[in-house]
């Protein structure tokens, strides 16, 4: 029985591992891996790999993020929780027309910059239909790491898709996927005054890729707000006589735009700051992040770069290069995603559990059966006894005839003191 269970376990987990390692274009892991952050000067945005050839990958994004043809930009991808180094790309096609529905660009980057093949999520073909109103979008909101967001389509026009939730700054160039993430059905570039995200549909993007831009340009709605027209404000919260606050002020580069406020004034506004120094980041007057404590060196630069402050476009890596689990530095980990790792851990735990069960059953069985085996041995010993095996000598084996003759009955001896009478 145990062998059968073990065989079933191996088969099930082998099938699950094969599914996890297969290049399934509908998995959210592939969608996240195909999406990226883009750095171009002071601009921040998002993009997605939608096409590839023998030597290069092609990333779709907004023209207002990367600029004109020939510009050099940096892209960052993520794999299994690890971020890549900035990868250099070049803008090969770009077109933007103010107040129209076209704000598109294509960035080319070499395949040799990646340790292995990257997932590609293609554009929806002509006639592609998806009855589900659910959509997925991946973007680097506020310049942070790429995150997955689920929403739904509200309505569509000739060239635009209105969807919920609202697109926020940093998601410029975010791809809009269908429900299962197998196709790119739009590209985000605006939001509306009533809280909708606004994206170019696949038909408009496909026409741009073919070079037929003029045929799809349509006017934007009056309440469309370009995502690049957003204000990001950095606030340093201080207290009177706070020495760490003074050190934090000195550590902030001169070109960073920030303001300082006293902790009592900030808490009167309802932000509940507990300690100083504390950074508050506001995007369009909405609090997006709160970071307490003194930040120096690489940690401070990474924090400022995340929100678009400063001129440094590179960030320190989140992990050491010697990390064996980092797929960007260890090619053997490239094809192994987090699902495969969890499966391997589960198999190891199950194997040790199964060994422990077997040992427990063996030990318990031996403890229970030993007395019975002893009694059975004694019983067999009595049944097959012989003079040589140490068993009682007067016991006889069944069915065996005795070699000794039966003794004749003896008469009682006469008593010397009695006479025989007739």
Short description:
The protein is of the alpha+beta class and 422 residues long.
Describe the protein:
With 422 residues, the protein is of the alpha+beta class. Among the domains are: 10-228, Thrombin, subunit H, CATH 2.40.10.120; 232-306, Glutaredoxin. 26% of the residues lie in helices and 27% in strands. The chain has eight helices and 19 strands. The protein has helices at 2-21, 28-34, 63-66, 202-210, 243-251, 263-268, 297-306, 338-383, and strands at residues 35-40, 43-52, 56-61, 72-76, 78-79, 82-83, 87-96, 103-110, 134-139, 147-156, 160-164, 175-177, 184-192, 197-201, 224-226, 232-238, 258-262, 278-283, 286-292. The strands form four sheets. The chain has a six-stranded antiparallel β-barrel. A hairpin with a 6-residue loop joins strand 12 (175-177) and strand 13. It is extended. Mean pLDDT is 77; it is low at 17-26, 312-321 and 387-391.
